[in-house]
């Protein structure tokens, strides 16, 4: 009987040692690292013995957002076309709206602060043109300031204007509708003059067109700044600019402010 039990005891002892050497019922993890990408979860867990276990949990549905929705700043080009005018005064001849063109080309930046609030900023060049209603008047840069002289030459005046160009920076905080189609912006701008001239065109006694230029700044201010309003519908924006400084330098021209309005295509 003893000889029969001895082998059985040895067999049970061997099985118990084998199970003892297997994995424990409770595993204690000392460190855990979790990485989530596109809805999937990678979990790295370190056991007491130093070994790392990788657990991958895949989402049933992976949702990938459009990368453009994450871009808070975008840049592009825009153009502006409009009309120039000046505030009323009796010291300057009447400016004719049709032909007093305002145009600009800009690098436009859009900062998306929130869904319904964007900030538009632009850097570009714009041109002022002021065409006189009286086509026989010539803008002359005299030593004491700009003067308006009647054309006394042989022929008939057909066009008289002064112009200036500016390197300009504009900043317009803007509110948008939920569908992004309607916009209302109020902001400002500042610029430095980079060019200017006077131009007079007339038909001589033979009916031939003649042009004469005053290639100077025409006493137009070297710096300008003002307020800007924008109303946008879809890709078209209407703008209104009002210069807060005088168009001409102090004591060298009439005290008038420039006004510009027109359309922007973005």
Main sheet specs: 8 strands, antiparallel, barrel
The fraction of residues assigned to DSSP E strands is over 45%
Order of strands across the biggest sheet? 4-6-7-10-11-13-14-15
Shape field: elongated
Could you say which structural class the secondary elements and strand pairing correspond to?
Answer: mainly beta
Taking the alpha carbons of the first and last residues, their distance comes to 102 Å
The number of E-state strands comes to 15
SSE series: HEEEEEEEEEEEEEEE
Q: What would your notes on this structure say?
A:
- It is a single chain.
- The protein is elongated.
- It has one helix at residues 2-20; strands spanning 29-37, 40-47, 52-57, 73-86, 95-96, 101-114, 117-132, 137-142, 145-150, 156-176, 182-203, 209-214, 223-233, 236-243, 258-265.
- Mean pLDDT is 83; it is low at 18-25 and 61-69.
- Strands 4-6-7-10-11-13-14-15 form an eight-stranded antiparallel β-barrel. A three-stranded antiparallel β-sheet has the order 1-2-3, with no helix packed on it. Strands 8-9 form a two-stranded antiparallel sheet.
- It has 266 residues and is mainly beta.
